[in-house]
Amino acid sequence: MGASPGEEIAYVNGEFMPLGEAMIPIEDRGFQFADGVYEVVATYRGSPFAIEEHMQRLQRSLAEIRIDHDVSSMPPLIEEGIKRSGFDEALVYIQITRGVAPRHHEFPAQPPRPTVVMTVKELRRPDPQLHASGVKVISTPDLRWKRCDIKSIALLPNILAKQLAHEAKAYEALLVDEEGYVTEGSSTSSFLVQDDVVCTTPPSSRILPSITRSVLCEIITELGITLEEKNSTLADYLAADEVFLAGTTTEAMPVIAIDDAIISGGEPGPLTRKIREAFVDSVRNR
Ligand code: PDD
Q1: Which residues of 97-127 are buried (b: 16+ CB within 10 A; e: fewer)?
Q2: Which protein residue's CA is at the shortest distance from atom 16 of ligand 1?
Q3: How far apart are CA 37 and CA 60, in angstroms?
């Protein structure tokens, strides 16, 4: 494991420090109520990927939960955190909560200063072997709230789903809503390929507006592949020619089994491979 020399860094309300020294008060509303939002940004060749898109989504998440905070000063701080960490490739986690106040459910009468936290760690992309072989996933009910478009730090249903996947030695859990539609993965977007058409869940409050998903949608269209944003059931996924996942660290990941069903003959399918290759080319040449 060729770990690059570097140090895990934290940023808390204006100050950088080693990660191990960072502290947050117990009465931070993020800790008490999960009253906050977050972003995860990966670097390619040391530069944060799609930073404007991540900042736009963060600003929108803040507005949706009525935290008054302008994120326009974040990009230089992110750059600084990456530089300070010294890692060749970094994973940046940003979390903004409503701040510290005595524990009452309603917003504090005097809005506290939002808590702005960032951590910078070495980015470990999934083992290349996984992209080559494809991964197994499970399906599980989507127990999340009705505003999955907000990148809220309240991730308990996602965590419980991911743990089930982990216990099943699977990479991810596909979340299935009450009507039988697959919304997305517990921390990824999902796509299927049927008869050379790529399908993914349309943007709505049922899914996160994933940045990787939108980059892949552009790439799919540029490749001349037909893309349909439409809801697909678990049965559609099980019968699909190909299935893949998308996310900041996952990139585009082929799925070769769902529960006990083999997908795409147990190998990454041709369109998935083509789309992944185009993604890798585009991020390396951005
Ligand atoms: N997860 N869907 C969900 C529910 C997610 O949590 C994520 C990201 C995605 C993919 O979004 P993006 O392409 O913007 O990374 C889809 C992050 C990485 C996480 O929670 O760590």
Answers
A1: bbbbbeeeeebeeeeeebbbbbbbbbbeeee
A2: 188
A3: 10
Kindly report, residue by residue over 95-129, the tens digit of the pLDDT. Answer: 999 999 999 999 999 999 999 999 999 999 889 99
Q: Tell me which residues are annotated as active site.
A: 151
Which atom of ligand 1 is found nearest the CA of 184?
Answer: 2
User: Residue 109 C-alpha to ligand 1 middle, in angstroms?
Assistant: 33
Q: Please give the full DSSP string across 22-67, using - where no structure is assigned.
A: ----TTBHHHHH--EEEEEEEEETTEETTHHHHHHHHHHHHHHTT-
Rounded to 5°, the CA angle 22-40-13 comes to: 35
In testing the pocket of ligand 1, which one of 121, 153, 188 has its CB within 8 Å of the most ligand atoms?
188
CATH topology for 9-122?
D-amino Acid Aminotransferase; Chain A, domain 1 (3.30.470)
Of all residues in the chain, the percent with pLDDT exceeding 90 is 95
Q: What is the pLDDT of residues 185-239, one digit of tens each?
A: 999 999 999 999 999 999 999 999 999 999 999 999 999 999 999 999 999 999 9
Q: So where are the chain's domains?
A: 9-122, 128-285
Q: What pTM did the predictor assign?
A: 0.96
Q: Does the domain at residues 128-285 carry the CATH identifier 3.20.10.10?
A: yes
**Among protein residues, the one whose CA lies closest to atom 8 of ligand 1:** 187
